[in-house]
Write a structure and sequence with these properties.
Blueprint lengths: L1 H29 L16 E6 L5 E7 L8 E5 L6 H11 L5 E4 L13 H15 L7 E6 L1 H12 L4 E5 L5 H8 L5 H4 L6 H6 L5 E6 L7 H13 L6 E5 L12 H13 L1
Parallel strand pairs: 3-4, 3-5, 5-6, 6-7, 7-8
Antiparallel strand pairs: 1-2, 2-4
Helix pairs in contact: 3-4
Length: 268
């Protein structure tokens, strides 16, 4: 019997250690700043942007002008390991008629500060207000992966023209509970973004692009987002499901067309 007690205590101790390790390391897991690549060369007409936040953090970004002066400004939010300049250039390459702005998340060089879900959501509102003078034709929020949660939150707090969410989720807590069901995620997790609740209160048109083979955001979480919105009779302007994974969706041959369709769906 003593060996059984020792075994049980060892298992319990290991579980507590893993839970504590997740608690300590979750910031690095959710915001893996070391994985972000360097900025690409942007078009010559691009403009550098900067915004200082009340806590002293400085957010740096870029704006690439569009070819059509009547189009709304796209404010793009990338994934948690995506360089913001690369995000802006990627969106511009697909929809060059739209002006595109993207900022490096706080704590992601050259932006300063410390990233957190609450800070990123607050920054999104400040960025919207900062860019409003450059958006006489309105603004569309485009969010990729974790950036979809930021874009959804912005759409619930500011009068934007629409939101396009790529590889979205219903909530990060739900993602964590599904991928790590053996941990008390709801108790430990400090970086919740609840896309479903944000969109329930958002009047902006929303379009969704899903990866059916997503290995990072379980497809069930994107479907739960759709089910939750439909249960509230919340209109969805467009839904696209591509047979792709979380990262290779961007090289899917149909992605450019689906993104352009989504932009048209929310802006028309």
């Amino acid at each position: 019997m003593p060996w059984l007690v020792k075994f049980a205590l060892s298992v319990a101790g290991l579980y507590v250690f893993v839970a504590l390790l997740f608690t300590v390391m979750q910031g690095a897991i959710v915001f893996p700043r070391s994985l972000v690549g360097p900025s690409p060369s942007l078009p010559q007409e691009s403009r550098q942007l900067s915004l200082t936040r009340p806590d002293g953090s400085v957010l740096q970004g870029s704006l690439i002008p569009g070819q059509d002066p009547t189009k709304p400004l796209i404010l793009a939010f990338g994934g948690n390991a995506w360089n913001a300049d690369a995000v802006a250039l990627f969106v511009h390459s697909i929809a060059p008629e739209y002006p595109v702005a993207a900022f490096h998340f706080r704590g992601y060089a050259p932006s300063t500060g410390r990233p957190s879900a609450n800070a990123l959501k607050a920054d999104a509102l400040a960025l919207h207000d900062h860019l409003a003078p450059d958006a006489p034709n309105g603004m569309i929020a485009v969010g990729f992966s974790i950036g979809s949660g930021v874009a959804a939150y912005l759409s619930s707090e500011r009068p934007i023209d629409g939101a396009v969410l790529v590889t979205p989720f219903d909530s990060l807590v739900a993602v964590g509970k599904q991928t790590m069901p053996w941990l008390p995620i709801r108790l430990l997790f400090r970086h919740e973004m609840n896309t479903l609740e944000a969109l329930k209160t958002s009047p902006a048109p929303v379009a969704l692009i899903l990866a059916s083979r997503d290995e990072v955001i379980p497809p069930a979480r994107a479907e739960a987002l759709i089910d939750g919105l439909q249960a509230r009779d919340r209109a969805i302007a467009a839904i696209s499901r591509l047979q792709a994974g979380h990262n290779d969706i961007y090289s899917h041959p149909e992605f450019p067309g689906e993104l352009r369709n989504a932009l048209s769906a929310v802006s028309d």
